[in-house]
Write a structure and sequence with these properties.
Metallo-beta-lactamase, Chain A; alpha/beta; seven-stranded mixed beta sheet; 2 domains
């Protein structure tokens, strides 16, 4: 009886010491969060690569890392410290998260990196120069990208624009646009057609009984260029530039309201060229929802009160507004109402009557406005 009791005691003691001696420490401490997360961008800018410092865990060791983008589920990528996004991400704000998992299956709290994808800004663009040429009471705009030039209107026959263009046009002039057949827009184009070879000419199809219009059409017929009538939905594509025709849909209004209206996006910088489009044309474009915020607005109809409605300016919200008018012109352009409306939306205002020729230079990301005076 004593032997059995002693044996039981010895067994209990041995079991107790055995358990104490054999029990290992259970690791419940999460591994260290991976530090110094960084991002590199490839050429296409929307499949970034992320790297981070290795996590540490002295007891169990790191088994793997788990990553996720935004609200996606975490996915295991193995014991590596780099990860490349396989599916292109959309432009906008994103978050990358990574956490370590040790060999005891403990997960470290995720480290995160906020980042932005902007494929447009990453594109390296050549310098675009847009000249709002001082032609007095008229419009003439030269869009110049390398050896590609587009001329929108040419002012009146006098003073003309050929002398100015000689310093910029690398023959031929790829595209000429006559927004509408008023003399202060097409008169100077007659001299341009005589001085330069022109590949394409875009008209709105409207006519006039003026002598200037007759001379202009004779010059076009002698040029032998390709001639097109612009309608909403058309695009003018040349040398890396794409102009969208926003107006007219048809010739159903006054000569001014039948003006060709063009938009141009260059990288992140948007231009809107309105010719002499007035409030009726603006209303038509507003109804279709095709207008959007722009950086640079060529103010309609020389800054007249007949254009630049409150609703139109609210839709396009230009950072810079440029009107084209002659100093002391008989029409009183620009009208005070228009200037006040532009000031109310916070636009920076320039005019050829006070600033002379105005040049906008952009790399597609930023822009600068240069004035002659």
């Amino acid at each position: 009886m004593r032997v059995k009791r002693l044996a039981s005691i010895l067994l209990a003691i041995s079991l107790l010491f055995g358990l104490v001696g054999c029990t290992s420490v259970v690791d419940t401490t999460p591994p260290t969060i991976p530090g110094n997360i960084s991002k590199t961008i490839p050429d296409n800018d929307n499949t970034p690569t992320f790297t981070w410092d290795a996590a540490t865990d002295a007891i169990s060791g790191i088994a793997s890392y788990q990553v996720r983008i935004d609200s996606d589920a975490f996915s295991d990528i193995g014991n590596v410290t780099t990860y490349t996004v396989s599916t292109a991400l959309p432009d906008g704000a994103h978050t990358f998260e990574v956490r370590a998992v040790d060999k005891a299956s403990n997960q470290g709290t995720a480290g995160s990196l906020a980042f932005t994808i902007d494929t447009t800004a990453a594109i390296s663009l050549a310098t675009l120069t847009v000249h709002f040429i001082d032609v007095g009471q008229g419009d003439s705009i030269l869009v110049d990208l390398g050896e590609t030039e587009v001329l929108i209107d040419g002012g009146d026959k006098l003073p003309g624009v050929v002398e100015y263009l000689n310093d910029y046009i690398d023959d031929p002039l790829e595209v000429m646009v006559a927004t509408h057949p008023h003399a202060d827009h097409i008169g100077g184009l007659i001299g341009v057609l005589d001085a330069f070879e022109v590949d394409e000419i875009w008209l709105n199809g409207d006519t006039s009984t003026s002598k200037t219009y007759s001379q202009f059409m004779l010059a076009i017929n002698s040029e032998g260029a390709e001639v097109y009538e612009a309608r909403r939905g058309n695009t003018i594509e040349v040398g890396g530039l794409v102009f969208d025709v926003l107006h007219p849909v048809s010739l159903s209004d006054t000569t001014n309201n039948n003006s060709i209206v063009l938009s141009l996006s260059y990288g992140e910088i948007d231009f809107l060229f309105t010719g002499d489009a007035e409030q009726q044309a603006e209303s038509n474009m507003l109804e279709t929802g095709i207008l959007r915020d722009v950086e640079i607005l060529k103010v309609g109809h020389h800054g007249s009160r007949t254009a630049s409605s409150q609703a139109f300016l609210a839709a396009v919200q230009p950072d810079v507004a440029i009107y084209m008018a002659g100093l002391g012109n008989q029409y009183g352009h620009p009208h005070a109402e228009t200037i006040e409306a532009l000031e109310e939306i916070g636009a920076e205002i320039y005019g050829t009557d006070v600033n002379g020729t105005i040049v906008v230079v952009t790399d597609g990301i930023t822009y600068a406005v240069q004035t002659e005076k």
